[in-house]
Design goal:
The chain is α+β, with helices and mostly antiparallel strands. It is built from four helices and six strands; from the N terminus they run βββββααβαα. The chain has a single domain, classed as YlxR-like (Hypothetical Cytosolic Protein, Chain: A).
């Protein structure tokens, strides 16, 4: 069985599963933003959604070290990290099993009250 990939948090410096962390990316102008789901090009850094990790990880020295270039936290980056963590936490149970993903797909298609829902397996 294959082990899930792990990454190191900028704040606490602990290795954690990649799915539990939020990915940050540095733009060409030096601003660091949250990677919005898709893999943005370039070097990435990871951060725990904990308040203490966010505070320590978003300091100027840690960002510059992680990206190997002068970097500055984007506007409202701490709030964006927390929001991204909440979105990932909601999406995680559906991805855990194929049956859960199928259930979410069926419920997403059920817009109004319907009599029959067809489920393909």
């Amino acid at each position: 069985m294959k082990t899930p990939p792990s990454r190191t948090c900028l704040g606490c410096r602990r290795a954690r599963p990649q799915a539990a962390l939020v990915r940050l990316v540095r733009l060409t102008n030096g601003t660091v933003v949250v990677d919005g789901g898709t893999r943005a090009a370039g070097r990435g850094a990871y951060l725990c959604p904990d308040a203490e990790c966010i505070k320590r990880g978003l300091s100027r020295g840690r960002l510059g070290h992680a990206f190997r270039k002068p970097s500055e936290a984007g506007p409202n980056l701490a709030a964006a990290v927390r929001a991204a963590a909440r979105l990932e936490a909601r999406a995680a149970p559906a991805e855990a099993s194929p049956a859960g993903a199928l259930l979410c797909e069926v419920s997403a298609r059920a817009i109004e009250d319907v009599d029959v829902i067809t489920v393909r397996s």
